Structures are given as structure tokens and as C-alpha cells.
UniProtKB/TrEMBL annotation:
This is GPN-loop GTPase 3. Pfam families: ATP_bind_1. Transmembrane segments: none annotated. Belongs to the GPN-loop GTPase family. The lineage of its organism: Eukaryota, Metazoa, Ecdysozoa, Arthropoda, Hexapoda.
Length: 275
């Protein structure tokens, strides 16, 4: 088997930082993890990618083409569609080594995961190539410290889950940047209770909430009834936090479960000495 994390989430949520952190952490534990950069607009990152989509096509190529005349968003979709048209290139770049463990560092355009089909087609191809995949949906914890924003982030996570139909882990990034009061408030949201979220929004006495209270309550009921969304906090400066996240994902994709069991050789006991 081969193993992969599809690292997705909004722009600026910390996807590339997460990938470089996991690579360094794995190296410290004598484990090899490689990264595949799927962001054609990436400028720099702290890891050396095993495969880089920019060697096939760069966002600027699509935007500067006089016939295409794409903007940033359209150009990004075009680049990913170009990748799908050149899957032989990707397969050759990835090679064919058992026990590969790859992180796919994806673009930050949320539409790619919520309703467009391009990422779903890529996932289907990777599965045909014998990859076990877990989606790692990242969102900035600084964005999620009030009820309305948390509800929005939760719905985005649900949309990605429905579209990609894969095992899914939601991660709150940049926990090390939160103040003590924000961390305490965020504790209520790690296993989201819609009643707490709605209570916070009522207390804020927002005019928007007063107008759309029934809609907000209905969304909260969807989250509660299906019990699909849970968030894991990540502090990249804490090795234990990184270990917990990695162990959770490894268990989901069953990494290491196919390893051969090492049996210790024991000398056979003398039958005369056995009671």
C-alpha cells in the first residue's frame, strides 16, 4: 500500500507550514515523509517537494496567455485541469514504491474542494494507484473564536467531506498564536455543540442573527444530527501536539498495519525439563 494526506483548506490556513512541520518531525523519528506541491501559484515553502506542479504548469502561464485571459481563480482551476490531462507525468514523477507516505500540499481555493470535480477526479486516480488517503482540512484557529465564524468554518468542512467522500480530519492551526482567553473560548468549539454556538450568537445581539435566527438554528441542527465534524488543535511548536495529529491520521489510513510482525526466536525447551 501507499499512503497520503490531502492537505486542503482556505488560503493562509497554514497548509505548507503543516507539511514542512510533518516532514521535519518525521525525519526526527527516522521516518520518511515526502511532499507533493499541487499549488501552481506557490512562491516558496520550507520543504523540498518530491513533485512540483510548477514544473508542469505555473499559474502565471495561464494568466499571461493572450488567448485564455484567465484571472487568478480561473487560472488555478485551469492548472489543476491541465494536471488531470497529464496524469502520466504525475504517475512517472511519483514513481512506484510501496510504503510511500506523501503529503499533497493543495491550493487554497476552497471551491476546488467544496463543489468542483477536479480534486475528486484526482483522488479517484490516486486510489487507483493504490493510495490510502485521508483529507486533512485546515482552518486558522484565529478565525474560529466566535460562534458565527465557527459555524461558517464547520459548514465549509462539511462541504469538503461531502464532495470528496474520504476519511477526514479537521485541524485548527496556529494554536500557538492564540491568547490565553481565546484558547479558553476555543475549548468549547473543539467538539462543536450547536447549542453553545447559538447561545454565543444570541448573546452578541447581532442584527443579522435576529433576522436569520431560524436559518442559523437549522444549520446548527444539521451539524448536531449528523455528528460529522470534530476539530483537532495543532500547535506546531509542541511535539506532543504533532504526535497526536499524526497518530490520528496514521490510524485512519491504517499506516503500518501491514508491516510484517517480527517474531522472536526462542530456543526450544528440553522436553525433560517441562513440568
Amino acid at each position: 500500500m501507499r499512503y497520503a494526506q490531502l492537505v486542503v483548506g482556505p488560503a493562509g490556513s497554514g497548509k505548507s507550514t503543516y507539511c514542512s512541520t510533518i516532514v521535519k518531525h518525521a525525519a526526527d523519528t527516522k521516518r520518511i515523509v515526502e511532499v507533493v506541491n499541487l499549488d501552481p501559484a506557490a512562491e516558496h515553502f520550507d520543504y523540498e517537494p518530491l513533485v512540483d506542479i510548477r514544473e508542469l504548469i505555473h499559474l502565471e502561464d495561464a494568466m499571461e496567455d493572450e488567448e485564455l485571459k484567465f484571472g487568478p481563480n480561473g487560472g488555478l482551476v485551469f492548472c489543476l485541469e491541465t494536471l488531470l490531462e497529464n496524469l502520466d507525468w504525475l504517475e512517472e514523477q511519483l514513481g512506484d514504491v510501496d510504503e510511500d507516505y506523501l503529503l499533497f500540499d493543495c491550493p487554497g481555493q476552497i471551491e476546488l474542494y467544496t463543489h468542483l470535480t477536479v480534486m475528486r477526479k484526482l483522488v479517484d486516480t490516486l486510489q487507483k494507484w493504490n493510495f490510502r488517503i485521508c483529507v486533512v482540512f485546515m482552518i486558522d484557529s484565529q478565525f474560529m473564536v466566535d460562534g458565527a465564524k465557527f459555524l461558517s468554518g464547520t459548514m465549509a468542512a462539511l462541504s469538503v467531506m461531502v464532495n470528496l467522500e474520504l476519511p477526514h480530519v479537521n485541524i485548527l492551526t496556529k494554536m500557538d498564536l492564540l491568547s490565553k482567553s481565546a484558547r479558553k473560548q476555543l475549548d468549547n468549539y473543539l467538539d462543536p455543540d450547536p447549542h453553545i454556538l447559538l447561545a454565543d450568537m444570541r448573546n452578541a445581539k447581532s442584527k443579522w442573527h435576529e433576522k436569520y435566527a431560524k436559518l442559523t438554528e437549522s444549520i446548527g441542527e444539521v451539524i448536531e444530527n449528523f455528528s460529522l465534524v470534530r476539530f483537532y488543535p495543532l500547535n506546531i511548536k509542541n511535539d506532543e501536539s504533532i504526535d497526536d495529529i499524526l497518530l490520528t491520521i496514521d490510524n485512519i489510513i491504517q499506516y503500518g498495519e501491514d508491516a510484517d510482525v517480527k517474531i522472536r526466536d526462542f530456543d526450544e525447551a528440553d522436553p525433560d525439563e517441562v513440568d
